[in-house]
């Protein structure tokens, strides 16, 4: 199987952060040849609905030129990105998975009865963007939406990833996690909601332990967005969507 991992913004540095996570998953599965693609034009970072559509307009014509070379596609942008549905309409039976969609499906599977899931994201603008995306993805289903406790922005941006960044980023992630835990009851699944947050799951775990205690905090599951996408895509490629094992997506 040949998989194309798509970064729909122009940052090669962000694409490079995907590689060790996905390589680790693929080594365990040993099922696919992974290639990475960064859009050469368009937004360097995506923060608004308008930029999502601008990004798609740049990506789709270029992707259609190489789509025949691949069996499946992972859209690595944490949003309800139009590229997922658009590309799917062109490639027919080949699966196209967005990491945002995959994490929400993972949360619904991993959360316990009576519990909820939330999203830790980057900038404040994403709180409304991602909340709206969840509502759209779940098609207004009240029973499913009752399991969604909301989105907490950490305020982390690309400027926080410069040398010496870890202390500042850790403080921001832990503050956002604590705020989300306090805003809703029985949160037992947290989703990492932004590709620049890759690798920061450990700070979410630390914040959960401090806020809830080591025992209860240790029960909160933290979903890695890239791994969730790979679990779903692998399942679709193997025609085994009924028994997706999202425990492999925990960071």
Automatic annotation (TrEMBL):
Any single GO molecular-function term of the entry would be: amino-acid racemase activity
- Pfam families named in the record: Asp_Glu_race
Q: Which domain of life is it from?
A: Eukaryota
What family is this? Belongs to the HyuE racemase family.
Q: What is this protein called?
A: DCG1-like protein
To which species is this protein native?
Amniculicola lignicola CBS 123094
